[in-house]
Every structure is written in C-alpha cells, then in structure tokens.
Amino acid sequence: xxxxFKNQFKKKHFFYSLYYHYLCRKYAIxxxxxxxxxxxxxxxxxxxxxxxxRLKVLRNIIEEERVISLSILEERLxxxxxxxxxxxxxxxxxxxxxxxxxxxxxxxKYSICSNLCCEAHYEELHPHFYCQICGSVVxxxxxxxxxxxxxxxxxxxxxxxxxxxxxxxxxx
Length: 172
Prior knowledge:
By secondary structure, the protein is α+β, with helices and mostly antiparallel strands. Helix content is 45%, strand content 12%.
C-alpha cells in the first residue's frame, strides 16, 4: 500500500512539475512576443557585435520598466563579472544604445535609448524624475530640457536634468 502511495505521489509530482514548466515556458514566450524586439538586430544597428553577455545585459535593460543600475544588473546576472557588466554598459553608452542618469544617489542608472534620444542633440534630451522615497527614476521623454544660453567661450558637453519628488506609488 505504501509503495502505491509513493508511486502515485511521484506521478502527481512529475505531472505538476511538467505543468509548471509548461506554464513558465508559455509565460516566457508570451513575454517575448509582447516585446517584439530583435535584440541581435538592435545591437548590430548600433555597431555592436552581439555576444551572449551583451544580449543578456540588453534584455535585462529593456525588460526593466524603469531605469536600472549596475547593482541591480549584478543581482539579476550573478554569474557575470562586475567589470564585464561595467564594460558592456560603457560600450552601450558610447554607441548611444543606452543613456545614463545621475540622480544624485551616487549610483548611475541606465535606460534604453528610444528615438535617438542619446545622439547628443540638445533638442532631444529629456529630464528624469527621481522619487526621494523609493529611489526609482523615470524618463520624462515627453518633456524637453529648456534651452540654456551659455556665456561666450563655454561649450555644452552634457546636461543632467533631474526632478526630485514623490512618485504616485509612494504618494498614496
């Protein structure tokens, strides 16, 4: 009797395990279909050779709904070396695939570039909102940084426009 119970338990466990993996795979496929992004093509368009590491990093940046920091990427990709992650982020930034945000927290945050927002054209730069409670940073892509007149001889190289306050989630 005990033998039968063990076998039934094993069979049920096996089927539950199969069903769980089926659901996970189905969810992953739906998520990939939802994004409709060809990561390989995206890297090649920016002149970056697609490698397994670069594809993983890019996928994590794109799947993040908000900006992402190096420390969060380290947590999500524990098998990847910190220096490799940093070099990959530096390459992505140099090739205008991502842009960096200095929110004053002491840690740069990164976000995927859209509509060539990182091509260093002043008109295309946008501010970011930093929540002082939860620390989240959101790109305000519908807003533009106001034009600044610099004195003669000064040359603009970068603008960091961060608006600080409380996000709707923390404001409740």
